[in-house]
Amino acid sequence: MCGIVGYIGHRQAYPILIKGLQRLEYRGYDSAGIALFDGNIMNYKQKGKVADLEQFCEGKNIKSTIGIGHTRWATHGVPNDVNAHPHHSQDKSISIIHNGIIENYESIKKALQKRGHQFESETDTEVLVHLIEEIQKKENTSLFESVRLALNEVVGAYAIAVISNENIDEVIVAKKGSPLVVGIGENEFFIASDATPIVEYTKEVVYLEEGEVARLSIKDGFELKTIENVILTPYVQELEMSLEAIEKGGYEHFMLKEIFEQPKSITDTIRGRLLSSNASIKMQGIDSYSDNILQADRIIIIACGTSWHAGLIGEYLLEDLARINVEVEYASEFRYRNPIIREKDVVLAISQSGETADTLAAMRLAKEKGATVLAICNVVGSSIARLSDAGAYTHAGPEIGVASTKAFTAQVTILTLISLLLARKKSTISESYYRQLLIELEMIPKKVESMISMNDYVEDISKKFVDAQNFLYLGRGYNFPVALEGALKLKEISYIHAEGYPAAEMKHGPIALIDENMPIVVIATKKGHYEKVVSNIQEVKARNGIVIAIVTYGDTTVKEIADYVIEIPEVAEPLTPILANIPLQLLSYYIAVMRGCNVDQPRNLAKSVTVE
Ligand code: AGP
Fold it and tell me: Is ligand 1 within 6 A of the CB of residue 492?
């Protein structure tokens, strides 16, 4: 997944492009580049981060009021200077940046090579700009029309921006399968993969829809059409995001900021939905499909990574509270295993970014089969949100750190609200239990607040495990998915191998791993098979394992046997995952920082995987 930016207007483009790329670097950072016009289209690009590009451009005195920029997460071609974007046409008059994959690029490349085209890179993107050039020369058309015609020949996903020597008062953009936002200023346009580079300049934005292509010109304005040449009117929206929301706010890393934001983000998730005055839950999107859900044979939850872990917790909540049959699927598996999907199924996609390719594809498959498709997303206007029949935004605010934290707890909060909404409609739990859970859910932000103040204690514990080679995470019931999530957090930012298991599964194999070098995190909260988990801790200690236990305030039993104990507030069992997860986020954060890892941009990862 890559980040693209562009600018055309009255300001110098270079600083706007560089700053925009810095804001998008979480989307991919193995190479970066910009194209500007200073008499001719000039590409400045190289392997490395945006800071390296800035150094490379130092002193080049680049003056241009039009430009495009790109930060890459390699899909075709290794990260190097040649494969970095932008790419130019054979005659170097056209320059393009691209986020996505052109699946039929090889056949197009062969045809172009037969007509004398020579390529410098291994990328699919370079093929696309040569195709645009070929069409423009053959059809003698405008750049706008040439891009549109070229996109009718490609198969795959793209968010592109194209500029040319031919007319420096235009940037051509197009979108299919990868996100692209256009910011509208006073006689200027901003282009980006998401709104974070745009919000400081304007709040007026247009999210391009699937299969749309646009021409942005200061003289002629915003021309929008489909790639089938149907003229459209741009739908301008007001951005909700604020600038401070995307800054670090004094924290060392976005990840720590986002962990500390959770009392607020959970409050924002609940706001307007949990109406304590009359003990009711209002969720417009879900409500409009509650009959479909109540009459459904089952709910199939599809997601990837952390969102899949939230989905697992959703399964426990929906089955336990609302007695609805739930299956949780990795979207990447679901889309290819020829699954049985019936019209009476409800498919629920969960995604922070709303752009994960596998989740999008699984949703499309479900829609083709006639299922109702709902979504829980964090990014307003994202592709998954717009593809769904209805759904709920988590309102966790922009999540910049690659490791998902506040979006996860927001997803679980939404799933809890949905489960309670449906349980009440079905009367599958008593009114008193329903009201108890509602009251406790409303108190969660305060409880999270109280836990975050323990971060120094968790930091101290983390020091003991900086050199650990492996970790096991164990939990039962609602806390089994929390164990999986804790393990993922640790491995993806500290690069320590970690596995999550249902605690009872240990004796079916993993117990062989346990010795004095193996740290084991055990979630042993009072509610949820507590006695059995205590036995599991004793089994670990009998083999000299090192136990870090997450317990309920005031627990004395586990304190006697575990090596380290982190206490969390007492809460009803269905609400435990939100709280139990917080110390695991902090533990992985501090271990990773002490290991000198790049916490916000871990190696090999990107914030949203918009390619397969
Ligand atoms: C989470 O910490 C990971 N970065 C990753 O697993 C992520 O959850 C996954 O890629 C799904 O992303 P999405 O929620 O944006 O769809």
Answer: yes
